[in-house]
């Protein structure tokens, strides 16, 4: 039995199947841990979602910004954007089940047995693990509750950018959703910058990647994330970014937990 972490798939179903063939994935024995953004921007969002849905006993994943955006569009809280490519899921006969199933998915997986924490974008570097997990759990509960449509309607926007300026429940929800599913860079005081997407080294000098801030990040376990295609496959101490930009013509990456081998599949259309 093996455990594999896989970065952002974004509808690249052909590449997912090829990657699973390379690792000889056996759904009876192996487990996949996906870092979110299974869908959108790429060609086959519905196939990826159906695959994850049908193999639920062997596939775990965290919600990414694209799953949350899909939920907002599917429930008419938001208009579909010109670059969104999940019309296939919106037209699926299984849409209602897919929506309810996504609502149950976590924002963070903190696995003590396998010693890792997985999140789509990042862990807030100036808060301790307890505060971060409590925030994630609170929002997960809201998404499962009757308040879920309000979460989807009110999650858009960049403010507040610092936890000390949070004034109410909805600002708290938006701040933490932005941390968990959109963050790349922070200012040194811990304020979020949610616009800069360039690779580290090219950013304005006052910004640092979230994982470089003087921090309270857990040291005793692997931290796995995706979301940052321009960072690409990256490791820094116990921290691993697995978004290697398959949807942008690059690679889909799997990291095997047991021996830390990297297995990649190139984009098959480019
Ligand atoms: Mn993302």
Ligands in the model, by name, code or SMILES, are: manganese (II) ion
What value does the Rg take, in angstroms? 17 Å
CATH hierarchy: architecture: 4-Layer Sandwich
Quaternary organisation: single chain
Q: Which topology does CATH recognise?
A: Purple Acid Phosphatase, chain A, domain 2
Q: How many separate domains? A: 1
Number of β-strand runs: 13
Q: Kindly state the percentage of residues in helix.
A: 25-40%
Question: Uncertain spans, ≥5 residues at pLDDT below 50?
Answer: none
Strand arrangement, major sheet: 3-2-1-12-13
Classified in CATH, the superfamily is Metallo-dependent phosphatases
Number of helices: 8
Order of helices and strands: EHEHEHHHEEHHHEEEEEEEE
Principal-axis shape: globular
Please tell me the overall pLDDT. Answer: 97
In whole angstroms, the N-to-C terminal distance is: 33 Å
The fraction of residues assigned to DSSP E strands is 15-25%
Structure description:
The protein has a single domain, classed as Purple Acid Phosphatase, chain A, domain 2 (4-Layer Sandwich). Helices cover 29% and strands 18% of the residues. The chain is built from eight helices and 13 strands. The protein has a five-stranded mixed beta sheet, with helices on one face. The chain has a five-stranded mixed beta sheet with strand order 4-5-9-11-10. The protein has a three-stranded antiparallel beta sheet with strand order 7-6-8, with no helix packed on it. A hairpin with a 2-residue loop joins β10 and β11. α6 crosses α7 and α6 crosses α8. The longest helix is centred in the middle third of the chain and has 16 residues. The model has no long low-confidence stretch (mean pLDDT 97). The chain binds manganese (II) ion.
């Amino acid at each position: 039995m093996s455990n594999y972490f896989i970065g952002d798939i974004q509808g690249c179903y052909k590449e997912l199947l090829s990657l699973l063939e390379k690792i000889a994935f056996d759904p009876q024995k192996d487990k996949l841990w996906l870092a979110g953004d299974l869908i959108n921007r790429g060609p086959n969002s519905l196939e990826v979602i159906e695959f994850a849905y049908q193999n639920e006993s062997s596939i775990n994943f965290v919600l990414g910004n694209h799953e949350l955006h899909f939920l907002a569009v599917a429930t008419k809280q938001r208009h579909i954007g010109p670059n969104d490519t999940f019309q296939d899921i919106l037209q699926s006969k299984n849409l209602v089940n897919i929506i309810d199933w996504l609502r149950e998915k976590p924002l963070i997986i903190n696995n003590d047995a396998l010693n890792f924490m997985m999140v789509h974008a990042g862990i807030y570097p100036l808060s301790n693990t307890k505060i971060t997990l409590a925030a994630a759990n609170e929002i997960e509960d809201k998404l499962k509750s009757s308040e879920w449509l309000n979460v989807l309607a009110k999650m858009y926007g960049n403010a507040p950018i610092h936890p000390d300026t949070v004034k109410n429940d909805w600002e708290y929800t938006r701040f933490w959703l932005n941390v968990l599913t959109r963050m790349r860079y922070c200012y040194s005081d811990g304020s979020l910058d949610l616009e800069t997407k360039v690779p580290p080294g090219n950013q304005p000098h006052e910004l640092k990647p979230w994982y470089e801030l003087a921090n309270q990040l857990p040291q005793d376990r692997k931290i796995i994330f995706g979301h940052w295609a321009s960072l690409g496959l990256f490791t820094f101490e116990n921290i691993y970014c697995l978004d290697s930009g398959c949807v942008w013509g690059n690679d889909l990456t799997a990291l095997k937990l047991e021996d830390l081998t990297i297995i990649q599949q190139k984009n098959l259309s480019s």
